[in-house]
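Following up on my earlier thread - several people asked me to post the actual chain instead of describing it. Fair enough. Here it is, all 338 residues.
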Amino acid sequence: MNGSTGASRRPTIRDVAAAAGVSHGTVSRVINGGHWVSPEARDAVDRAIRETGYTANHAARSLATGRSNSLAFLLTEPQHLLFADPTFALLLRGATEALAQRSMTLVLMIADTAAERANVERYVRAGHVDGVLLISSHESNPLLSSLIAGGVPTVCTGVPLGDRAHVPTVSVDEQESARTMTRHLLSRGHRRIAVITGPDDTPGGRYRLAGFRSEMGDLFDPALVEQDVYSSDAGAAAMTRLLERAPDIDAVFAASDVMAVGAIAAIRRSGRRVPDDIAVAGFDDSGLAATHDPPLTTMRQPWNEISSAMVDMVLQVIAGGDPEPLVLPTSLIVRDTA
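Reply from S.P.:
Thanks for posting it. Predicted structure:
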């Protein structure tokens, strides 16, 4: 703290304004997101904050505004998947970074069981967070409908299934992405192509299968379809079942990288080679794909853009806006497995 503020009290917004040579209103706008502030003024305020040692009194601000200055990162999956599936960590990191730029806090919440859902509902609807980033949604899970009914600003990754009230979404084109990967496998001469996809009550599980089926056309064989949870163990078990039913499979499209890694392990245990005997493709490009041996062909999702857009969108909802759904592009990343 510099000498102008004294050692006996906390520096205030007015101290920062005096040090920066701007109005206290400008300082307030910088602290609350930087809207309508010139880059020069923002730099001056940031420098003055460092010099004075100012920290926002979030408790006082919450009392004055009725807001908590925090968002919930809500995962409706079993807790272990947070650590087993790197896609959740990518979204969590991106959302945390986006909120840190706004001096906001992210609260991690998991609601897989009925008891967890009830606890989350009480916490969120009591106003402990200003809005919710719903990272996964199941058609059978009533939590999204409850949040909407309670007027909680909520944004979803993926387009939720079922008869839902309007909710803003950030997604990729699941069907077209699956078609792109299927076309790639077909272009390499594969014809007995299996698919391992996620649960049918999730957007990824349903729409990626639909895209695969559409692109396969007359070559689609329902005996070459497996659906399970998004995990490596589930991918391995699904691949084992497929090989038992159809040992002539020459390629498999797994609708997540973790499933694909499990499928590769099962293929190797069967004495077959990847990609010489069976080509394997995944979905996500979560970091796991590039470091796997062999590196995994996959569909890349734009993780930073997804999490950043979700934060922007939920803040628009909190401010009274009604943002349009956003669909972001994926990219085919060809590596050694296909």
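The CA atoms of residues 20 and 44 lie 5 Å apart. That should answer part of your original question.
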